[in-house]
């Protein structure tokens, strides 16, 4: 809508009227008649009031939009926008940056106390199970997002098959524990090592590829792992998966009702929720470990080399940085964190199958990283909460059926809303929620760098 | 082999004739398919000198640079780099990044290649990757937060500060490199290359796009690098005010061949150089080409 806008009121009303007319035209075939299977065949129920409501809503929304745009244009006419400047303008810290300093503590506080808050709010540990389970789910994705952030956000390597390493970690724990009876605490580092090794295996052949080609090969790698899991039935159980995977123990003490169990040892009354709360804190710890390692690595030469690689690979080579090993370490470390998360996933579920490791999972994790703002830890956490917690909200929107009629299930619109959110992000925050980059070192006050300067990487 | 580390530039100048070559380019040929970009080029850059590589557009200067810095593998020829301690590296055999890491040849680019989203200081720290990586125990020890890495990082920041002071960017240390004005980006790229502690610094058109005042600053910076850091400099340049003022030695290329080699004054007076730059009468073209040894068929361009 780049046409010259006039902001006189009659003009706005005429424009809005035109919009309402288009909406009316669209509504006639879609909304105006409802077909019911009556006793004598199809019956048409006219719904003209609904059509009128739609048209009126469109009219009002367009008027409001035009008024807002007119005000913005008037304001812009007075102050030139930073986008018009030839050189980047170092402006005020934007909303994203303020969120990132403030949101960090809020997020951490809520994450640490979630089981307490949930059980207080819903009256007891048992009823709080839904919230704690949701917390575990979100934190798993936060951890995966943070892990992928090393590869995509820091090193700028587009990885569409990240879920493969998650699968390697999950199967690693499942197979080692069911075959050799190894405990979770032995398998956790092994799963990370295994996944890192697979990260290297993937890394070697794809090092020469960049951008789109790299993305396609990693996508293929993700699918290959899934197909191997389905077809190697002797080892993985095929599509049936692996069941009765040993549950997590409290560092060797099982969460059981007998006298050797966790509750009896610590003088508590047995509650099956103890295990869930333990799992919650376990994934919280793992996620924080990922975050801590990433933040630490960013201040190390290897982390700076990753970011330099994202900015300009040729300049890196001219400075004596071995881009091969640098890329491999990024792949391997990202994969190791996915391996940890995978082995947590299988100890929590007790059952895994290739179904859990589809491309959609990779896409969601990548979407979390991109929506959050590549390279931003807080952004990724916020995006994970929105992407994983958001759909859960839909389940609780039952009242909407009063508006849209019986049988309306908001959950069915999940992917539609997901797509809308993506489009909205592309329009308003194309570089993610938090697009600023915080320097790894500074002489004076640490100032964030506007996303306009930071490269996304080319592979 | 007489190895010299001239403490005093005057002394160095006096005995310049006997100095060793830091870089010897021997029979370098680079072909891209049917196009011979560099044809049997041989020259030497002496230690402690500023050597300029000049020539008209398309003469193959940047190709020579890319061969020296490992971005191209030469079709034929040898690139021999000698360190002051006598170790010799054959650049054409080293992998790309090792030309900087082990042979200690640093370069800048014709179109500036900074890390625009990283701060000026970070740009200089990335250049000190090798010593920092070693100090951090290849990340493992540094991740545990050992003191060795922290002191190494402080030292690296001090080195960076020294260069920032030298190029006049101290007050912009925490700004993103992409936000600097063009001239400052050029200086920063040179400082970043110097942070890798090179024995040979290769500059690809460092004065391109600079105004006369910035060119003069650049001359001073290059002299400082040569005299105070004892780093030899090899530069490609079109700006003759830079070339003639600061070079100790000039090599002129045309159509991938060397047409002149000597001091700035010798080169300036050379009729072949004048012909290559300004063009001549048709008969003279033929005469000069016969002298240089290229016929029309071979030149191909």
UniProtKB/TrEMBL annotation, chain A:
It is a multi-pass membrane protein. The keyword Transmembrane helix applies. Pfam families: BPD_transp_2, DUF3382. The keyword Cell membrane applies. GO terms for molecular function: branched-chain amino acid transmembrane transporter activity. Keywords: Cell membrane, Membrane, Transmembrane, Transmembrane helix. Residues 12-96 form the High-affinity branched-chain amino acid transport system permease LivHM N-terminal domain. It is found in: Cell membrane. It comes from the Bacteria. InterPro entries: ABC_transp_permease, LivHM_N, LivM-like. GO terms for cellular component: plasma membrane. The chain crosses the membrane at residues 12-33, 48-69, 102-122, 128-148, 155-176, 182-201, 213-232, 278-297, 328-347, 359-391. NCBIfam families: PRK11301.1. This is High-affinity branched-chain amino acid transport system permease LivHM N-terminal domain-containing protein.
From TrEMBL, chain B:
It is an enzyme of class 3 (hydrolase). GO terms for biological process: D-alanine transmembrane transport; L-alanine transport; L-isoleucine import across plasma membrane; L-valine import across plasma membrane. One of its GO terms (molecular function) is ATP binding. Coiled coil: none annotated. GO terms for cellular component: plasma membrane. It comes from Methylobacterium symbioticum. Keywords: Amino-acid transport, ATP-binding, Hydrolase, Nucleotide-binding, Transport. PROSITE patterns: ABC_TRANSPORTER_2 (PS50893). It comes from the Bacteria. Residues 23-280 form the ABC transporter domain. Pfam families: ABC_tran, BCA_ABC_TP_C. SUPFAM superfamilies: P-loop containing nucleoside triphosphate hydrolases. This is Putative amino-acid import ATP-binding protein YxeO. InterPro entries: AAA+_ATPase, ABC_AA/LPS_Transport, ABC_transporter-like_ATP-bd, BCA_ABC_TP_C, P-loop_NTPase. Its EC number is 3.6.3.-. Belongs to the ABC transporter superfamily.
